Structure formats: structure tokens, C-alpha cells
């Protein structure tokens, strides 16, 4: 179904369609160029273990790039760092052009060639739900690791010669230990791409940081297995050759063993807390321990030196840019307008946002509430729609852990100053709205898993009422434990109540209450609203880099890296080169690495801060314009300003919500029967909630019993 087909056609004089076609052709060529560069970068990794690279390519590259300004570091910057940064910067420009393209949604039709590849092929297992595409890339990446390790070993073993001091097996163990470290370094080159939330690399291939977190987890486990084996093999080798004192050495111009051991211990402590049981039961331990990545990276840099570190620098550099921008955004106190408290002990927080700031359904924000915890940040799916509520952003929080328990208690009690300090990172949006591709849409949720579907339904409300765009047939199957949880359905309608008529939406809701056979208590009027009194200094949620964020991000990355090259060029030419003369045998590796790190941090901070301050001025002007619009209406008495019963939604929207809902008590949804009964030819199926439910839905869609069901994975690894 073409979701944009009913919009009015443009006038011939403006010819936007021809301009859009031209932009589409440009975008295709840009994406082709980016693909070629990326394939070339991968080929470098593939060729690196071979004798061809070792004997021919590497000497040629070293002689051509070994200048007095960059030394031996210049080679790795050229072949490992520059290609990825080129992809990132040009990718930002690509995404900016795509964002401004008129008919992006028209081009998001169902690609039948990818349907089979996107179906889940692994459902129940340690990797979770894995599609055919993901499995293919897993196999290719493992093949790359095996190829590199085998080729490294074959070449190194051929050069080994037994000596009086060492036996052949000891020399082989030494060689294998080194190559395990090299393969771990290859995995490190990819490790930080998935956790750069604002990166342009993931959107280029249709991914979000949240959906890619599982790749970070897989890579992290692989890295630690390889580095642990690397360290253990060296300890065995040193013990067998009576060189155990090597563990205490920190060579001035070679590998620093002590630094490597500290990096490994930091990584092991971090790795231990990622066990799912520990992460679920003791999230705070996992959260705080994960910051050991700073020690891991620093001492890994000290272990190998800056020249070798440049092989993984692209991912680390882009992560540092992203992390610093998140830090700048988190310093702003956000204008919190109200909170709706439900009998199910769920809370909807409503924030002010700049009207021009648009985000897509299934977006995610990170919240920090100092009165609950000054250090913890928690991710939540945005439940509002920027099309339906242009000046509001909402999230729904279910009371489940200690952090949410404390937040609910604070909101349930009387707030002394009538306000709650909140900081926000994000929102982070998916690049496309895949659910628009289908003629019918089935959404299966369990408990608070209904949250992402609220944003989708609100988006369809806006399309049907405001934009007059036809919407698909929508079936929402939701399971709750108690009848009090049914009040979550009331959040399908925004607190404003504007343009919230469900009668034009082809929506059917099948709600199941699993632990009660009849309604318990009266939950009709138990939704309460807390209204806050923000400070004038509080700001609405706004994009950290303004409306042209992709262009600003490209400028930050390119300018900071160029400035870094200038500074290290000056350092190398006028300070290190007169001492070392590019031999890497005189000047300390550690000193050079620390100076490089300081320059890198300075350049990132300077470029990102300048861009942030510039855009904050524009956001401040817009914030002042909407400040008075966010206050509660003057008709409300002072006694009911902060805490009162929920202002009733308009009766028509609420009546239409009741008419579309069927409630089933004392039973669970028969998912297989309900899904297989759907006869529409093109059905998108989404699931959110307990892992068992998601696995069941994925199994049904991948069983082959119905070719019309297309499973759309939603990740909540954050």
C-alpha cells in the first residue's frame, strides 16, 4: 500500500517530484561510493595477515606515508582511520539529503527480495531472535576471524626455527598468543560502532543503536574471549621459558606488558557483570562497572602504542564525539509539564519540546532524575507522536525496579516546590517507519510492552485525522496481569485530547487479563495527573545540534579530526622527530600516546562545544517563544495546580476507544490461531514484552504456515 498516495499533487511549476528523482539518483551514487569505500576497508583487514601484504603492500605504504609529520603512525591513519571517517562524514550529508527528500515514505515499500532474508531463522537460543540477514553476516564475520587467524599462523609458523633457548612448541605458543591479540584487535575495530547513538554509519544500513546493541554484546564477548586467551597464552609461555618477570615489564619503546594486564583485568571485571542474571538482578552493579571501559581503552592504548591503536581509532573516535555531545545535552534541565499516574503503578511523563523538532515512533530517550539517582540514566520508548503533539514528548514508566519504585513514590507524594528536575538524552529515532509498508499491522504486547505501540497508534491517529492519509488495518493484542493494567489503554489518547478521534482509524483491540476472571474495583476515575511548575530556565527538549544536526555532526567530526592531525603533525615534526627520527626506538610510546590522547580530547571538546553553543542560542529563542504556552490554563485554581484528579478526556475519543476494545478475563491470547486467521496478503507483525511472547510470535511468523506474516523485530536491549 502506498501510504503517501492520497496526498495532493504538487504544482507543475515547482516540479518537486523531478527534483526528488534527481536527489534519489544522487543518493544512490553516494551510497554506492560509501559501499565501495567500506568494502575496500574490509579488504585491508582481509589482506593484512597475508605475505603479499607483509612483503609488498606494507613496505610500499610505509615508504609512501612515513613523513616527518606523522611518522609510522601515518600509515595506519591512512588505511584504517580515514576510510571510516570519510564514510561517516559523507554519510551525514547523505542522511541530511534523504531527510529533506519529499517522498522518502514512498520509497519504503516492501522489498520482496529481502522478505525471506528478514524472517527469523533462530528464535530460541543464546543469540535471541536472529534473522536470515543477521545469520549470514555472523557467518561472514566468523569466516573473517578464522581466515585471519589461520593465515597469520600459517605465515608465522613457516618462519619459526627451533633454538637452543626455546622449543618449537613454545615458539608456536608465543606466535599464537600474539595472533590472538591481533584478532581481538580486529573485533575491537567494530566494537564501538553499535554504541555510538548518534552515528551516521548505522542509519546508512537501516539500523539504530538500540537494535545494534546485541551486536555490541556479541562483539564484546568475542573480544574478551580472544584477549583472555591472548593473556593466558603469554603467561603460560613466560612460565615455560622462565621469563615470568616479563609480567612486570613496561618497555619504553615496545609493548607494555603491565598496561596490557591492567587493561585485561579491567575488561574481565566489566565482562563478569554482563552476565544476564547479574545485569537483571543488580543493574546498578552492571551500570557502574561498565564504566571500566575507560580504563580498558586507556591501558590498551598504553599497551600497544598510538600507531597500532589507530587501527581501532575510528570506532573509538566516533564514540568519543557521540559521548561528549550526550554529555553536553545532559547538562540541560528539561521542562517537565505533567505526569499521569495510573492504578497499574505506571507513570506517563509529559515534557515540553520545540515544535519544529520531529521524531519517529519507536524513538528512545534516556532519563536522569537527580532526586532518584544523580548518576543513573534509564532508557524509555517515546509514547507520543510529534505529528499529533508537536509541542509535547511523552514517555511511560512502569514501576518494576528500585529506581522506578522511588520515582513513583516521589510523584505520588506532594512535591514541596511543585517541580521535578529531569535531564534527557535523545530522542534517538529509527531511520524509517517500517510499519508503514504493510496493508495490515498486528501488534502483540505483554504488560508495559504496549508502550512502543502507543506511539505507533498515535502516529496513525494523526495521519487519519490531520493528514487524511489512509491507514492499515490495525490489530492490537495486549496481555495484562490485572484489570488495573487496562488503564494503560487510556494512554493511547494523548493528554491534550486534540485531534484524537479513533473512529477514523481501522483499529481493533483485543485485551486479555490473565490473572482475574472478572473486573476488580473501579479503575475508571483513578488516573491522576500531577501538574508541575517549571522554572523559567528549564528548556524544552530540542535536538542537541539543531534541525540540521547531520550537517553539524559532519562538521564536528571533520574539523576535530583535521585539527587533531595538525596538532600531532606539529608535535611529531618539531618535538618527537628531532629526538626519534622515525625509528620508534627512542621516544617513549607512553608519552606519545598520552599526548595524542590529550590532543584528540581537546579537538573533540572544542569542535563539539562550539557547535553546541551555536545551536543552543537558536533553541533558546524558540524556547522563549513557547514558554507561556506550556503553563496550565489560568482557569485552574491554585489548589489544583500541582495535584488533581485527571482532567477528563473528550467523551467522543474515549467512547471510540471503548468501542474498539474487547476485554477477555481469565485467559491468555491464542496467538497462533489469531495470527493464522488473518487473510490480508501483506501483514506486518510486531511483538513487545516478555521474551517468551516475542519468541512465540517470531516462531509463528517463521514457521512457513503463513507467507503473509512478516515479523518486524523490536529491540529493547537498552
Please render the helix and strand layout as text:
Blueprint: H1 16-47, H2 51-65, H3 73-99, H4 112-118, E1 120-122, E2 130-131, H5 132-158, H6 168-191, H7 201-204, H8 209-240, H9 257-272, H10 276-281, H11 283-289, H12 293-304, H13 306-309, H14 313-330, E3 336-341, E4 346-352, E5 364-368, E6 378-381, E7 392-398, H15 402-412, E8 423-428, E9 440-446, H16 451-465, E10 473-480, E11 507-513, E12 528-531, H17 549-580, H18 589-626, E13 643-645, H19 651-659, E14 661-665, H20 671-676, E15 683-688, H21 691-702, E16 709-712
Parallel strand pairs: 9-10, 9-15, 10-11, 11-14, 15-16
Antiparallel strand pairs: 1-2, 3-4, 3-12, 4-7, 5-6, 5-8, 12-13
Oligomer: single chain
Number of DSSP E strands: 16
**Beta-strand content estimate:** 5-15%
Total of DSSP H or I helical runs spanning 4+ residues: 21
**Intertermini distance:** 32 Å
Radius of gyration: 28 Å
Main sheet record? 6 strands, parallel
Please identify the structural class as seen in this structure. alpha/beta
Number of domains: 2
Whole-number average pLDDT?
Answer: 84
Query: Percent helix among the residues?
Result: 40-55%
Trace the largest sheet across and list its strands: 14-11-10-9-15-16
Low-pLDDT windows of residues: 1-14, 630-650
> How would you sum up the global shape?
globular
Family: Belongs to the ferric reductase (FRE) family.
InterPro entries: FAD-bd_8 (IPR013112), FAD-bd_FR_type (IPR017927), Fe3_Rdtase_TM_dom (IPR013130), Fe_red_NAD-bd_6 (IPR013121), FNR_nucleotide-bd (IPR039261), RBOH/FRE (IPR050369), Riboflavin_synthase-like_b-brl (IPR017938)
EC number: 1.16.1.7
Membrane topology: Multi-pass membrane protein
Amino acid at each position: 500500500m502506498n501510504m503517501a498516495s492520497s496526498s495532493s499533487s504538487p504544482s507543475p511549476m515547482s516540479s518537486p517530484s523531478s527534483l526528488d528523482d534527481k536527489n534519489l539518483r544522487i543518493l544512490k551514487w553516494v551510497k554506492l561510493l560509501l559501499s565501495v569505500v567500506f568494502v575496500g576497508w574490509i579488504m585491508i583487514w582481509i589482506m593484512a595477515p597475508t605475505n603479499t601484504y607483509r612483503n609488498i603492500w606494507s613496505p610500499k605504504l610505509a615508504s609512501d606515508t612515513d613523513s616527518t609529520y606523522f611518522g609510522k603512525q601515518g600509515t595506519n591513519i591512512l588505511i584504517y582511520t580515514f576510510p571510516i571517517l570519510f564514510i561517516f562524514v559523507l554519510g551525514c550529508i547523505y542522511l541530511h539529503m534523504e531527510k529533506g527528500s519529499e517522498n522518502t515514505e514512498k520509497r519504503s515499500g516492501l522489498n520482496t527480495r529481502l522478505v525471506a532474508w528478514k524472517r527469523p531463522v533462530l528464535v530460541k537460543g543464546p543469540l535471541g531472535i536472529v534473522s536470515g540477514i543477521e545469520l549470514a553476516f555472523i557467518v561472514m564475520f566468523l569466516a573473517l576471524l578464522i581466515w585471519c587467524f589461520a593465515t597469520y599462523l600459517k605465515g608465522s609458523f613457516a618462519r619459526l626455527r627451533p633454538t637452543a633457548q626455546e622449543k618449537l612448541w613454545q615458539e608456536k605458543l608465543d606466535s599464537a598468543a600474539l595472533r590472538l591479540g591481533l584478532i581481538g584487535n580486529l573485533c575491537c575495530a567494530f566494537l564501538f560502532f553499535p554504541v555510538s547513538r548518534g552515528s551516521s554509519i548505522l542509519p546508512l544500513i537501516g539500523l539504530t543503536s538500540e537494535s545494534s546493541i546485541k551486536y555490541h554484546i556479541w562483539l564484546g564477548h568475542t573480544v574478551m574471549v580472544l584477549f583472555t586467551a591472548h593473556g593466558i597464552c603469554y603467561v603460560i609461555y613466560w612460565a615455560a621459558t622462565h621469563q615470568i618477570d616479563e609480567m612486570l615489564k613496561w618497555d619504553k619503546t615496545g609493548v607494555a606488558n603491565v598496561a596490557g594486564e591492567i587493561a585485561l583485568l579491567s575488561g574481565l571485571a566489566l565482562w563478569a557483570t554482563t552476565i544476564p542474571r547479574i545485569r537483571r538482578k543488580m543493574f546498578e552493579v552492571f551500570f557502574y562497572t561498565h564504566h571500566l571501559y575507560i580504563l580498558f581503552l586507556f591501558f590498551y592504548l598504553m599497551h600497544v602504542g598510538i600507531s597500532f591503536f589507530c587501527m581501532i581509532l575510528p570506532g573509538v573516535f566516533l564514540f568519543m564525539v557521540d559521548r561528549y555531545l550526550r554529555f553536553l545535552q545532559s547538562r540541560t534541565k528539561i521542562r517537565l509539564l505533567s505526569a499521569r499516574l495510573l492504578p497499574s503503578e505506571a507513570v506517563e511523563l509529559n515534557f515540553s519540546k520545540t515544535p519544529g523538532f520531529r521524531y519517529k515512533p519507536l524513538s528512545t530517550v534516556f532519563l536522569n532524575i537527580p532526586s532518584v539517582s544523580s548518576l543513573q540514566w534509564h532508557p524509555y520508548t517515546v509514547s507520543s507522536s510529534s505529528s499529533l503533539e508537536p509541542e509535547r514528548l511523552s514517555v511511560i514508566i512502569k514501576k518494576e525496579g528500585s529506581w522506578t519504585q522511588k520515582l513513583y513514590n516521589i510523584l505520588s507524594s506532594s512535591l514541596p516546590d511543585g517541580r521535578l528536575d529531569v535531564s534527557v538524552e535523545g530522542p534517538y529515532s529509527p531511520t524509517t517507519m517500517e510499519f508503514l509498508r504493510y496493508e495490515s499491522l498486528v501488534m502483540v504486547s505483554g504488560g508495559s510492552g504496549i508502550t512502543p505501540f502507543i506511539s505507533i497508534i498515535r502516529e496513525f491517529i494523526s495521519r487519519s485525522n490531520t493528514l487524511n492519509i489512509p491507514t492499515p488495518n490495525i490489530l492490537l493484542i495486549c496481555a495484562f496481569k490485572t484489570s488495573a493494567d487496562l488503564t494503560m489503554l487510556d494512554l493511547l489518547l494523548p493528554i491534550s485530547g486534540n485531534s484524537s478521534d479513533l473512529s477514523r482509524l481501522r483499529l481493533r483491540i483485543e485485551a486479555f487479563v490473565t490473572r482475574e476472571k472478572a473486573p476488580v474495583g473501579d479503575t475508571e476515575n483513578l488516573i491522576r495527573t500531577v501538574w508541575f511548575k517549571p522554572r523559567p530556565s528549564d528548556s524544552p527538549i530540542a535536538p542537541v545540534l539543531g534541525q540540521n544536526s547531520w550537517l553539524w555532526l559532519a562538521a564536528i567530526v571533520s574539523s576535530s579530526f583535521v585539527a587533531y592531525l595538525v596538532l600531532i603533525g606539529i608535535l611529531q615534526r618539531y618535538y618527537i622527530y628531532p629526538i626519534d627520527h622515525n625509528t620508534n626506538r627512542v621516544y617513549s610510546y607512553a608519552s606519545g600516546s598520552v599526548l595524542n590522547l590529550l590532543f584528540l580530547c581537546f579537538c573533540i571538546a572544542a569542535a563539539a562545544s562550539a557547535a553546541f553553543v551555536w545551536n543552543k542560542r537558536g533553541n533558546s529563542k524558540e524556547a522563549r517563544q513557547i514558554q507561556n504556552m506550556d503553563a496550565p490554563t489560568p482557569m485552574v485554581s491554585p489548589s489544583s495546580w500541582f495535584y488533581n484528579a485527571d482532567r477528563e478526556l473528550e467523551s467522543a475519543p474515549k467512547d471510540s476507544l471503548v468501542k474498539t476494545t474487547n476485554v477477555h478475563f481469565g485467559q491468555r491470547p491464542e496467538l497462533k490461531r489469531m495470527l493464522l486467521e488473518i487473510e490480508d496478503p501483506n501483514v506486518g507483525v510486531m511483538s513487545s514484552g516478555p521474551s517468551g511472547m516475542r519468541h512465540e510470535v517470531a516462531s509463528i511468523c517463521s514457521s512457513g504456515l503463513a507467507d503473509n506474516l512478516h515479523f518486524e523485530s523490536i529491540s529493547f536491549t537498552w
